[in-house]
Each structure stands twice: as structure tokens, then as C-alpha cells.
Amino acid sequence: MNELLSARVPFSAIVDRPKLVLPESARMVVWLIVNIEHWSMENPMPRTVLSPPMGQPLQPDLPNWAWHEYGMRVGFWRIFDALNQRNIVPTLATNGIVCTSYPRVAEAGLNKGWEMMGHGYVQGPMHKLPNQLEAIEQTVEAIKKFSGKAPVGWESPGLTENDTTIDCLSKAGIEYVADWVLDDQPVWIKANPKPVLSVPYTVEMNDIPMMLLQSNRAEEMLTRGIDQFERLWSESASIPRVMALSVHPYITGAPHRIGYFEKLLDHIQKKEGVLIKTGEWISDWYRTQVPAPKN
Fold this sequence. Notes:
10 helices, TIM Barrel, five-stranded parallel beta sheet
């Protein structure tokens, strides 16, 4: 374990913490994240669905680029409709360049009041960037110029961070991150010049591991989602929890998957005592309960 990273989040057992109180007599919060990204055809694809014939590297990688492009042209709009029809406001995790490469997509979310969260400038690992702070600031500025408001949240592409990433995010004015998937409640992370809040994200209720890496059938999102939700709802009777659900247009927006996503949303909305909120809302709420520690 990297001692510098682990020292930023001192161990805390969830059963030993002060009681958190949610508004509206609620007991848990669900956080929906829609990830929109820019994949450059001249570069290796961030993920692939089709291997090249005879294992020969393919550049430009047309089939896998087009697979993602379908998500932006078609799949996003299925997710968009599913959320709008249910009056759900998610967080839009967006590459900064998407504001100019896919403005129609980013604008659709912005016009519905979706929170815009930084997700790198282009899709690629943070630790491979020559200057992380510069790339983060470029992303923040692109989103601010497009939306009129600088993002307060951040999700690194692939959740990639090294020892310096969290300090760079803090310097750039980021208030919360989704990279540290280590709890069911927000957790303060030590950073300079000021602490950054970890809002519970997910690798289990995320369509990339679920569908692409584990090769599950489409209904796995509904089955796993209900199991995850029901358990957290039950436990939230004594200890409030946050459940995240992360989707990508080129995966969940596929025709054979979107229906299971819609059924999961319906199941969540039928349960009493559940709030569906953005990452920024969760961050603001937690800060009123547990103020940031002094560095």
C-alpha cells in the first residue's frame, strides 16, 4: 500500500461515527452519474469491445471508436429520456473537451439542470499526464466557460490518481472527488491547500466492470442493483448510506440494456425514505454535518 495515499484517509469504522441526519426524514441517498467522454480515433481506445482480426493492432481503431460514438449519437438520448421522464437530476461526469466536441450532448444535460463534474480534459489516465494541475485547470475552465459555473466535483478517468493528484485537485478548487471508492459515506481526504471530500462512488454498480470486464448479461444491472439498493436501504435505518450508480452511453444506452436501467430506477423511486441527489448536493449536505478537518 502506498503510505502517502493511505495516510490521507485515516481508518474509520462506519459503526463508530456520529449519526448523520438527512432532510425530509430520509434514510439514504442515491447518486446517479452519467459519464460522457471524448475518444480520439488517432489514439488507442480507452476500452474495446472488439479485438482486431488475428490479434493485429489496429490504428485508427474504427470499430471501437464507432462503438463509443454510437453512445454519444444514440445511447445518451435513451439515458437522457429515462432520467427526465422520472424527474431525476444526475451528475454529468464530462471530459472538458466534450463541451466543444459534443456540445449538443453537454448542453442537453445543462439545460435540465444536471450537475457538471470534471472527468479529465480528454479520456486518459491522470498519472500519465505531463502536468496534472494544468490539465485539471483546463478542464475546470472549459466547463466554466460552457456552463457559467466551475465544477466542484471530479472523477478521474478510470479513477486514476497518484500521490500528487488530490493536491492538484485541491489547488484547482475541486471540493469533492469520486475516485476513492472506500466507503458508503462521504470521507474527508487530507490535501493541500485544503481537504477534499470523497463522495461515495462505485466500481460494483458501474456498467464498465459489470458489463465489459465481467461479461454479464444485461439483466445483471437490475438484479445487482436491487440487491445493492435493498441492503443499503435496510442498513440505512440505523446508519445513513449513499449508493452510487454509474453509467456510460455506449454501454447502458444500448437497446438491450436500457430497459433494465429503467426498471432499476423505478424500483428505487418506489421506496420511501430515499433521496436521489447530485454529488454536489451530497457534498454540501455532509459538510453541514461534518466540517472539514484542519490541515
